[in-house]
Amino acid sequence: MITTTGLTKVYESRGRQVTALDGVDLHVREGEVFGVIGQSGAGKSSLIRCVNLLERPTSGTVTVDGTDLTALAGRGRRAGKDLRRARSRIGMVFQHFNLLSSRTVKDNIELPLEILGVTGADRSRRALELLDLVGLADKAKAYPGQLSGGQKQRVGIARALAGKPKVLLSDEATSALDPETTRSILQLLRDLNRQLGLTVLLITHEMDVVKQICDSAALMRKGRVIESGTVAELLATPGSELAHELFPVTGEASGADRTVVDVTFHGEAATQPVISQLSRTYNIDISILGAAMDTVGGRQIGRMRIELPGRYEENVVPVGFLREHGLQVEVVRAEAHVPAQGLAKEITK
Ligand SMILES: Nc1ncnc2c1ncn2[C@@H]1O[C@H](COP(=O)(O)OP(=O)(O)OP(=O)(O)O)[C@@H](O)[C@H]1O
Question: Which of 111, 156, 320, 338 is deepest in the core (most CB within 10 A)?
């Protein structure tokens, strides 16, 4: 539904060049909630603003629902109408809501429809439908100043949906909200995604947002995407930073000559007593150093750091047993020669 290839954005600022996006390739599938996470300055806002051409990319392409927006923008003024039409199929939600304080809630939602030339009666009907959809049917005549932050964002979401977009872009939509309101807005986005088949691309600096609603995620750093995939793919990728952030498991080996292993359970493997089978089959004592269970994108997933007696070379068979039983296994080795760093991670494929 959204594809960027080699997307690059260089800002010229006081004679200096800042590369905010450095060849970003992103692929968001139809109907998924895709989260882009990264620290401040990573390039997240630049990315989302380039996706709907609010910002002109320096190079690279953006295709949304089969339309190459960059090619339309490149055709100059005459393509303005086509570009506007394509952009009306992309809704956008902002961190600070961007509502007009002098207009009622209903009139705020009608604004994009006015611009699209929809007649008064149709505008009004659509705005009321949308208010109902976001749970604010009783607030049509209120002004933004009379609403809570969460209600304002619901209006922002309703306005973004006015043009019946297939894609919703969310620029830190919950960053200005308290944790409980954040949860309810994320739930609303999830519900809209499911009910309307809406594809959602959101940017955030909070891992909890990714955890609560994303099917897929990408990690950005210094203008580049350094990891991306479905949550299940990320959890299956040895050494994935995102997987580690989603599921931080800690714990250090109790001594030398121990093998420390991170095990990820999801799907069917999560319900099998694999660890006790391992212990019985090989007659070994297993210590649990750390564990976390959580729901990611609506699916139960668990991670555990366990310790087996003996060095890795002696545990190749038990580790193979875990893999054969459908668990993702990442071996974490203590590096004796770098004690200051504690457990240095070395991935054993
Ligand atoms: N209009 C601009 N002019 C010059 N530099 C800019 C402009 N917009 C962004 N930048 C720079 O581009 C880089 C990426 O910024 P961007 O806002 O895309 O990152 P971000 O990940 O969204 O950060 P934040 O979470 O703080 O908004 C930063 O170094 C920023 O200073």
Answer: 156
